[in-house]
């Protein structure tokens, strides 16, 4: 016997060393010294769950305990370990009640834990606590992780009902089908989730501890009472200490009190006595005894709410706290008091402050701070519509910063007079201004380019080289059409006797280039470039204005054709060349918008296809109505009518439905067989063999 206990102790230590988790008891050392087995574990001063229940546990704490143990079980199961003995004695706490923040629950005693790959059942059921063991464990069947989830459900039943779940084994035979859980009336909202946890068949239970905890949270969010569960009966002396009959407040004298307190004060003492009688019989008490009961009857503020509110306010006032911590604290208040408008408003205010901080950081070019704050907002409020625009602003600002840095390095190497580099620089700086309007570095750089090429144009005009003067003036105007020195240079060029002849020749050259399709390419000689050179000298030249408008229209036509053919890279190149050639902003923005819409459409189609494949694999082919594979594929074909993958997947869905129909018919489920075959024909109407099969089934059924 002593050797068996030593082996169990060392086995538990070996298992716990594999499991490092904040909700699992830690083991520091283990071994055998002078023939005596030993394990060094962390000290837990808070006792076990049974002790906590003697003192009283609020429903919020019940939820926290379940979530803690659910996390511990999920971690163990993820590492291939089954606990096999989840019970209140094995749920421990680090701190005693009343020491401040909620003490987390820890799972202990892995002495009969098993490795999930072990195929044999637990061979000594006397080691496990029968009231909390799953039906399959009591029946000596093979176990999986859902046996532990049953144990956790049985512990929850104890906390809510004051006793473990009932068993249908009064005749001495353990059955797989358990009796219905018995819960007090005030815990009726928990009936469904409790029934799932204590389902006799493992397949009917939640798939994981996390799923169970989420279901429990959903119940508490739907208005389950914020009660305290307590194993000990409530005495009449305790009732009298909470609300002596002579001290009951007049429920009519409440107009000056906050609405939340008025609601509490309208609960009459007669109701209190009735509740107390129920408490004495069931071991369940309304909020915390005696301080919580005072709050329940409206004689004082709920101490949990007051503590939670003070904690939240302190976090909100601390500039070093993350948004997640602040919002979680206020949400804790809402868990305890769902109608607390101040907490809801505080959450909204915190979100607004963080978003304002993001905008201020972007404007101050502190992009690291902006990114950190924006990540906080997106993590806490993933559906906030403002985060998308903020991410776009941040991304654009980073892109603009990169463009400016790269362009500065380019001009430092090549110099302002290197025409290809200067042309590329003007384009890059203007794109940076589009992404980050008013950027001072980009504006100053464009002014420097305008000044440089205005000087070159002036020198060429004085020397009588009208063509060179017009070329340089065109670059200066492209860099900054409002540059102060442009007027004087225009006057100098206009004074040249050969100007009109030069402009006529350039306009004819531009017309020839348009006929050949050289609208914005090649970069050194295209129609748009020449029209801009003419307009730089003569801004009102009607032929050049109209010619440039025609170039924009022709480029847009080519762009649409490339987009419809699915050549996105070529469409993107046309946008870049249009910007470099100085085409009208309206035409360029139109092309950019169309390209973004096309990319978004294709991404949406790809997402719908991926979701449809997942839904199909999970068996959700035509149901539920709001989320099934066929519905996703129909939406994909609406957005992309020629998508072959969507058509193939629809055909596969129809084939699966027809196969299910065949299986149902083979086992005599005639009505279900016809329904599934009708669904297959709805998805793919043209399959004659399915129509004939359905008609035959109807005939066989005598319909």
Question: In order across it, which strands form the biggest sheet?
Answer: 3-8-9
Percentage of residues assigned to helices? 55-70%
Mean pLDDT, to the nearest integer, reads: 81
Please tell me what the overall shape is: elongated
Notable traits:
two-stranded antiparallel sheet, three-stranded antiparallel sheet, 29 helices, 4% strand, mainly alpha, 703 residues
What report would you give on this structure?
With 703 residues, the chain is mainly alpha-helical. The protein has 29 helices and nine strands. It has a three-stranded antiparallel sheet with strand order 3-8-9. α22 packs antiparallel against α23 (542-564). The protein starts with a helix and ends with a helix.
Q: What topology emerges from the helices and strands here?
A:
Blueprint: H1 2-18, E1 27-33, E2 36-41, H2 49-55, E3 57-58, H3 59-78, E4 81-82, E5 91-93, E6 105-107, E7 114-115, H4 135-138, H5 146-161, H6 191-197, H7 209-221, E8 228-229, H8 236-242, H9 259-265, H10 269-282, E9 284-285, H11 291-296, H12 303-317, H13 323-336, H14 341-363, H15 367-380, H16 385-414, H17 419-435, H18 440-462, H19 466-479, H20 486-494, H21 499-515, H22 527-537, H23 542-564, H24 568-580, H25 585-617, H26 629-639, H27 644-666, H28 670-683, H29 688-700
Antiparallel strand pairs: 1-2, 3-8, 4-7, 5-6, 8-9
Helix pairs in contact: 3-5, 3-7, 12-13, 13-14, 14-15, 14-16, 15-16, 16-17, 17-18, 18-19, 18-20, 19-20, 19-22, 21-22, 21-23, 22-23, 23-24, 23-25, 24-25, 25-26, 25-27, 26-27, 27-28, 28-29
């Amino acid at each position: 016997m002593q050797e068996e206990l030593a082996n169990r102790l060392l086995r538990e230590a070996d298992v716990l060393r594999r499991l490092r988790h904040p909700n699992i008891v830690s083991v520091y050392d283990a071994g055998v010294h002078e023939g005596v087995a030993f394990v060094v574990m962390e000290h837990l001063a808070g006792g076990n769950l049974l002790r906590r229940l003697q003192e009283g546990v609020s429903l919020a704490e019940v939820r926290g305990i379940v979530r803690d143990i659910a996390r511990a079980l999920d971690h163990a199961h993820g590492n291939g370990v089954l606990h096999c003995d989840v019970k209140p004695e094995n749920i421990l706490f680090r701190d005693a009640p009343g020491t401040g923040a909620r003490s987390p629950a820890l799972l202990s005693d892995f002495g009969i834990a098993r490795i999930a790959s072990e195929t044999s059942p637990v061979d000594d059921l006397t080691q496990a606590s029968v009231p909390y063991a799953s039906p399959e464990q009591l029946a000596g069947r093979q176990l999986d992780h859902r046996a532990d989830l049953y144990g956790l459900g049985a512990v929850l039943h104890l906390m809510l009902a004051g006793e473990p779940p009932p068993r249908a084994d009064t005749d001495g035979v353990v059955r797989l089908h358990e009796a219905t859980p018995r819960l007090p009336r005030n815990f009726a909202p928990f009936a469904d989730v409790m029934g799932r946890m204590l389902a006799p068949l493992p397949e009917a239970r939640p798939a994981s501890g996390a799923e169970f905890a989420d279901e429990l949270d959903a119940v508490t969010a739907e208005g389950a009472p914020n009660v305290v569960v307590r194993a000990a009966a409530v005495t009449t002396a305790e009732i009298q200490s909470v609300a002596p009959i002579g001290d009951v407040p007049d429920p009519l004298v409440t107009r000056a009190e906050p609405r939340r307190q008025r609601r509490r004060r309208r609960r009459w003492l007669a109701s209190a006595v009735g509740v107390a009688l129920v408490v004495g019989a069931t071991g369940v008490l309304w909020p915390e005894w005696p301080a919580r009961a005072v709050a329940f009857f409206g004689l004082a503020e709920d101490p949990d709410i007051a503590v939670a509110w003070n904690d939240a306010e302190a976090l909100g006032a601390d500039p070093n706290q993350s948004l997640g911590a602040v919002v979680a604290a206020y949400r804790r208040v809402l868990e305890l008091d769902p109608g607390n408008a101040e907490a809801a408003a505080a959450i909204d205010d915190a979100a607004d402050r963080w978003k304002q901080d993001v905008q201020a950081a972007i404007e101050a070019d502190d992009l690291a701070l902006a990114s950190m704050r924006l990540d906080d907002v997106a993590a806490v409020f993933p559906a906030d519509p403002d985060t998308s625009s903020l991410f776009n602003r941040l991304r654009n600002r980073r892109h603009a910063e990169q463009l400016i840095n790269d362009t500065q390095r380019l001009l430092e190497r090549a110099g302002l007079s290197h025409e290809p580099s200067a042309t590329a620089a003007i384009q890059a700086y203007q794109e940076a201004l589009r992404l980050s309007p008013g950027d001072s570095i980009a504006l100053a750089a464009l002014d420097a380019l305008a000044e440089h090429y205005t000087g070159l144009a002036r020198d060429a005009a004085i020397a009588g080289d009208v063509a060179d003067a017009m070329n340089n003036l065109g670059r200066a105007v492209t860099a900054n059409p409002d540059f102060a020195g442009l007027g004087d240079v225009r006057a100098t060029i206009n004074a040249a006797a050969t100007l009109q002849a030069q402009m006529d020749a350039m306009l004819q050259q531009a017309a020839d280039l348009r006929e050949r399709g050289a609208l914005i390419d090649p970069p050194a000689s295209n129609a748009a470039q020449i029209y801009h050179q003419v307009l730089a000298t003569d801004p009102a030249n009607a032929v050049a204005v109209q010619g440039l408008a025609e170039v924009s229209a022709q480029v847009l036509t080519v762009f649409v054709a490339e987009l419809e053919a699915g050549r996105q890279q070529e469409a993107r190149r046309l946008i870049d060349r249009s910007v470099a050639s100085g085409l009208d902003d309206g035409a360029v923005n139109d092309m950019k918008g169309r390209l973004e819409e096309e990319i978004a459409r294709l991404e949406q189609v790809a997402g719908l296809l991926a979701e449809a494949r997942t839904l199909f694999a999970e068996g959700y082919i035509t149901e539920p109505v709001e989320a099934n594979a066929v519905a996703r594929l129909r939406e994909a074909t609406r957005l992309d009518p020629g998508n072959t993958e969507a058509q193939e997947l629809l055909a596969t869905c129809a084939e699966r439905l027809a196969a299910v129909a065949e299986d149902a018919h083979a086992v005599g489920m005639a009505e279900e067989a016809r329904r599934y075959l009708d669904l297959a024909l709805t998805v793919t109407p043209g399959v004659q063999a399915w129509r004939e099969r359905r008609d035959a089934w109807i005939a066989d059924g005598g319909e």
